[in-house]
Specification:
Elements: E1 3-7, E2 10-14, H1 17-24, H2 29-34, H3 41-52, H4 56-61, H5 71-78, H6 82-85, H7 93-102, H8 105-111, H9 117-125, H10 129-138, E3 143-144, E4 148-149, E5 156-159, H11 168-180, E6 187-190, H12 197-213, E7 220-222, H13 226-234, E8 242-245, H14 250-255, H15 260-273, E9 283-287, H16 291-294, H17 303-314, E10 321-325, H18 337-353, E11 358-361, H19 372-384, E12 389-392, E13 397-398, E14 403-404, H20 408-418, H21 424-432, H22 450-453, H23 455-459
Helix pairs in contact: 1-3, 5-17, 7-9, 9-17, 9-18, 10-18, 13-15, 17-18, 18-19, 19-20
Length: about 450
Amino acid sequence: MAYRHVVGPRTWAFADLAELMAKATPVRSGDRLAGVAAESAEEGSAARWCLADVPLREILARPLIAYEDDDVTRLILDTHDAAAFSGVAHLTVGDFREFLLTATTETLARIAPGITPEMAAAVSKISRNQDLILIARKCRVVTRFRNTIGLPGTMAVRLQPNHPTDDPAGITASILDGLSYGCGDAVIGINPASDSVAALGKLLHLLDEIIRRHAIPTQGCVLTHVTTTLEAMNRGWPVDLVFQSIAGTQAANAGFGVTLAILKEAHEAMLALKRGSLGDNGMYFETGQGSALSANAHHGIDQQTLEARAYAVARPFRPLLVNTVVGFIGPEYLYDGKEIIRAGLEDHFCGKLMGVPLGVDVCYTNHAEADQDDMDVLLTLLGAAGCTYVMGVPGADDVMLNYQSTSFHDSLYVREVLGLKRAPEFEAWLHALGMTDAAGTLLPAEPGSPLLADASGLAA
């Protein structure tokens, strides 16, 4: 079905919904690379006007990838909640934006199961940054494992203690450093340098020992492939969260070596362990705009819409955490700070609108046209938007993955400026150790802190 929009003497034509949505997307390098971007600002503007008039029912009825060709499409349509959708089914994309701007938190929670990723992506494309912030701030997604993530007025931090050789002493030092800054309530999550099962076992036991010894109300995760984590669970090793990178098409997920069936198996194995003390949200997914294009699995669809489809993969597994590693893939997909900032706000908005606990790795690679000032801007905007969690990396420089993210002290900044708290159980633990005052403000470290007293033994 072709779409048309008239501007003055000119009629702009778009062959189908996929082309219309791609041309309506704010400019970014990945869509230019894929040959799907608008060729001019005028064409992009016309596409957004045209998209605003498309009914949500039409988006539901016209899958961008055929049902019979893609298991993510089948998942989206087979799990669609028609009752939740009924309250907005009569709206166009433009009407939907107006509806979201005035909707309450309760209304947004009620409609979330009925919002497909294509609907979320479509409305994001016609929204200003301030719309993305305001609407996402009202979306509330709360999850629990050993603490409570996503409560109003909170922003959690993943403590990311990566080491280029998986050295236990180096990892332990980073963990204790991060904890002393009050980070780690989202998860203590290690990206391992090695994919071996033996290396995974050592890291899992290290995390488990630190968390148990200090009774930290958080969870650990080694971000290895889901099949390796399944092997660890089969061996009886201490697995808290099950991690996997996911994407928005069947072919892109195949590039990650994962299927929906494997994710289901891992989810069921995680539930059987019953390691969560407060809840059973035990899955952790990472995504990123451009992953499908980099695997040549994008089907001619723009990267932001495909990113939203990844959240549809995550949603049925009720994850504790999902995050977009927004600038990690590189400038081929998000060229500069402006594109990274816009993408981070879009991703957070779409995930939250769909009922997914979206966090953002506010990051960039060293060959992108971006710097830490850009990341400060995005971090602040995400804090205002109610972002679920961000990263805490020593010095903001990940020495294993070789990219720039947010540091432990960045979390202190955003919490002080915006009045954000940690997960309540984690906040209470810090206060009980004498590391914060009653308001959650970090206190000067004491030489005899119990957290640091046995650090050498943990790293042995």
